[in-house]
Design a protein that fits this description.
Strand content: 15-25%
CATH class of the largest domain: Alpha Beta
Low-confidence stretches: none
Helix content: 25-40%
CATH superfamily of the largest domain: Ribonuclease Z/Hydroxyacylglutathione hydrolase-like
Distance between the termini: 45 Å
Number of strands: 14
């Protein structure tokens, strides 16, 4: 994907157009991408941040066509806040992930939760939503957040992956809600599917989905192996692990890296491979 202009509806395949919001940042890359699915009538996936210029771009892209649903993959503030003004403008129901708000004062590498999100209908894994010539299937993919959903477009083999899988970066998995075990299981779930292309909320489309997913799983297993080796060397404090694992890391990102390490450690504890005593972790093997 070349650098797309913000606020312009770019058709990426016959049933799908993409509109980029003007909210670039270290965790949104060039910004949040909203997808319009359908031609005669539409579903809007990840309406994005509540920015007047983005809402104007969405209304221009919709161009007066009926909106059957406003779908949210999860409730971080770069994904769902525009659902409310868009609902007011179109009358469409807000459908998709469950509401979720987590109190979290730790160092984040992603957006905080949208406290005001409310769904008219929550989709369970495998449930579908249809319009004129399109069918979207909910695919539960917890891990980045516990309420994360992807949406599969049955007519074309596309999967809208939100923040679960992105081509430009690995997904943030930060406790208390981010769960590394669930994230790995959700990646494995995607390996069992036959999606043709992934459309993430940030970054370019993924044209070889299985290869990317295998690579992401390998990366996480490599990090887990690093942590297990450090525990065997009695390096059990998370800041010390971060210093050894992320050589040359921007100090401003050290706290967020520590959250990723913590997610791995919690997963290892759940599997009986690590234990925690105060702020020190130890190998159980």
């Amino acid at each position: 994907m070349s650098e797309a202009p913000t606020g312009e509806a770019i058709r990426v395949e016959p049933l799908v157009a993409r509109i980029l919001a003007a909210n670039p940042s270290p965790f949104t890359y060039t910004g949040t991408q909203t997808y319009l699915v359908g031609t005669a009538d539409l579903a809007v996936i990840d309406p994005g941040p509540d920015l007047p210029e983005h809402l104007a771009a969405l209304e221009a892209g919709i161009a007066g066509r009926p909106v059957r649903a406003i779908l949210c993959t999860h409730t971080h503030r770069d994904h769902s806040p525009a659902s409310r003004p868009l609902q007011a403008a179109t009358g469409a129901p807000i459908i998709g992930c469950a509401p979720l708000t987590i109190e979290d004062s730790g160092p984040r590498a992603d957006a905080a939760f949208d406290r005001d999100y409310a769904a008219d209908r929550v989709l369970a894994d495998g449930e579908t939503l249809s319009g004129a010539g399109w069918t979207l299937e909910a695919v539960a993919t917890p891990g980045h957040t516990s309420n994360h959903l992807c949406f599969g477009l049955r007519e074309s083999g596309a999967l809208f992956t939100g923040d679960h899988v992105m081509g430009w970066s690995t997904s943030v998995v930060a406790p208390p809600d981010g769960d590394m075990g669930a994230y790995m299981a959700s990646l494995d779930k995607l390996l069992g599917r036959e999606d043709r292309v992934f459309y993430p909320a940030h970054g370019p489309e993924v044209t070889n989905p299985r290869r990317l997913v295998r690579g992401m799983m390998g990366h996480r297993r490599q990090r887990e192996g690093q942590i297990l080796r450090l525990l065997d060397q009695d390096v059990g404090a998370i800041p010390d692990m971060v210093a050894r694992m992320y050589v040359g890391l921007d100090p401003r990102l050290a706290g967020a890296a520590g959250r990723s390490v913590l997610a791995h450690l919690i997963d290892l504890r759940n599997r009986g491979l690590a234990s925690e005593d105060a702020d020190t972790w130890r190998s159980v093997a």
